[in-house]
Predict the 3D structure of the following.
Amino acid sequence: MKITYKTKAREIIISYLKANSNKRFTAREIYDYVTANADGINRTTIYRNLDRLCEQGDLTKFKEPNQDAWYFQYSEEHKHCNSHMHAQCSECGRIFHLESDFVEDFEKKLQDSYGLNVSASKTIIIGVCDDCNKKD
């Protein structure tokens, strides 16, 4: 197991992710935040910290369909994000962790109706959340 140091960069990254744990971010967005709030932290340091947080299970990295960028989400309360499905608001980016009963029913329906085996950990359902619907 690698030793984890509490560096200034790591503390700023985690602080940002915790404050926005229901949203997902690109590495660029995290980089922009860190460099705006701290001097002397370079891109390599930020990417290294993101990789380490992913290895430790504190950060989930995923790629959305038809997008070039990788996205990250802090997963302190959801250490097993790779074992369930997510939904995401297309307006605000908020992530919802879907309950296993729903996921099992959804997977079974897709298998029975279409012969499609779904990879729950790689599936994101896109929609608009209630909060964003109320704004319209």
Observations:
- The chain has two domains: 1-76, 84-136.
- The chain has a mean pLDDT of 83.
